[in-house]
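This follows on from our talk about sequence and fold. I would like you to pick a protein and set down its sequence and fold. Go ahead and set the record down below:
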Amino acid sequence: GALLVNERIDREELCGALSPCSLSFEIVVENPLELYSGTVEIQDINDNDPVFPSSQARLEISESVAAGARFPLESAQDPDVGINSLQTYQLSANPNFALDVQTRVDGSKYAELVLEKELDREEQRELNLVLTALDGGSPPRSAHVQIHIDVVDANDNAPVFNQSTYKASVRENTPSGTLVARISAYDLDDGPNGDIVYSFSSHTPAKVRELFALDSATGELRVKGQLDYEETKLYEIYLQAKDKGAVPGVAHCKVLVEVVDVNDNAPEVTVTSVYSPVPEDAAPGTVVALLSVTDLDSHDNGQHILVQVSDVNDNAPKASQDSYDVYVLENNTPGIPILNVSATDPDLGRNAHLSYTLLQGDSTFGHLFSINRENGTLYLLTSLDHEDQVEFSMVVQVQDGGIPPLATNVSVSVFVTDLNDNAPTVLYPHPNTTYADVVAPGTPAGHMVTKVVAVDADAGYNAWISYTLLQATDPSLFSVGLHNGDIFTARQLREDDAPQHTLVILLKDHGEPVLSTSATVSISVAETVKEVLTDLTDVAPANDPRRHVTFYLILAVILVSAAFFITMLSVGIFKCYKWRQSKELYNSSRSTTYRTPGPFHHIDAVRGGFTPPNFYHQVYLTTDSRQSDLLCKKPFTSSPLGSRQGTIRNGEPGLYHQIVGTASRLPTPAE
């Protein structure tokens, strides 16, 4: 007796919108035979979405529609019934429209758009809204439709000119059709409401309409008739712009046309009176006739006597500067312009045409610099080197084209500024030598051992060298001066210190970028040079062909030093011998030559420096002499006897002087 569902039941297919939806049936029962009737009610579920007739709706609404206007929208359909049917609508947020949902007699819902804020097509031409339909299911089902609203233009804007007054000038002999001015107006409306037609204002005189023509579409004002400055000098033309709306908007503007005079009138000469005949004895300045001359033209066109002054080349070119200082970085790119020499000439035509010439200082200038003859641009043809030459001086001649030509010279100095393109160069110790500086054992801290000598070919800050100890056999034993390269002992030498030390000194300049080099210094701890030589011989490579060269060089230095010492000793002995000879000479001649009592002081001075040793002065001073006598003698000879005889017997001019004076004062350098 169980009642079963035989196939899927669709309430909307069976009953549509009818509610409630029920199916009736009869059941026959046998033994005993009985007939029963029954009814099955089909209950609705929310299995259908609301549906709009189309996915997009389009409305056209005039911008002149007042607020409060209502616009019905197409309704959505939902085959479900009861609470599952369409219940409400929603509208996307916007500033102009609101949504009003209404209910029909049968209970169905429909929506209307309500205009809350008036539309302005010039502000927004179209709007896009979204309308949403919702049923009452849980969760609710929905449908969407796009509403596109076109704002229809209304003629609510009048044309506007971009300026209220236009000004133009035209010559009086201008041919017909010449453009005088172009007026322009715009209208924010659309379609015919925004189409503009230009025309003369109603109060424009007929004479103006005869002389000027206006294009109604483009707003071009052109000459139509013959203008005459002598008749009218200024025309004031009023124009208007209208749109093509049902009630057209109008705008007005004014065009001021100034007529420019041309020399189209000949002078008129009027003879007022003539005095004739003139007596032959009439004095100079006697009035013969009275004339009057008139010309209808204006300004210069009315002066009929015109004298033109021709130009003479009486002005030399004038440079904006008498001299130029140009600074160029070294290692520059060849062919770059470095200076523009500017000059002017107040003359006219050929007399004012200037040409620029580089007066070369020497033959190399032509390979380094060139100048554009027409505009005075100075070019650098090659790359300069600050270390090669720092400054170049030249003269630029500016000459006009007159006959004869006049010229002006301009001094140009080109300074080559330094770049840090040279690393420091070590002068001492030489990189290829194996000589070692010597320091004695037990030397205290602060003792200067040797010095690193270096130069930098750059200039200024780029040539400042700093010295840093980069590597050492014993870093605690030696230190180097940061700015002078002096190598000092950092502590006292101990017995357990190594006998040989190798220092690597890093030399850096202060340029940008920093360039550097290194120097290797060898220091031996030994009492004598002999020990150092022995050590150097021990450490020299067996196969080095130059291993004996260092020894011989040191030996040569020792021999030269010994020879110098012996020479100096000999000179001292010789000087003492000369002094004794001079004293004996004085004792033998004091009574006859000088007649002055008292002992002599004999001074024999030899100039230092590069003066030869045999050029010297002999000075003799007495204790109580009241005057000085200047005596001259011949140059000194190698024979002491010859020197003595030359001093006593000869007073000839020479390179040596004998001075006799008081002992109370010494002669001044002038004396």
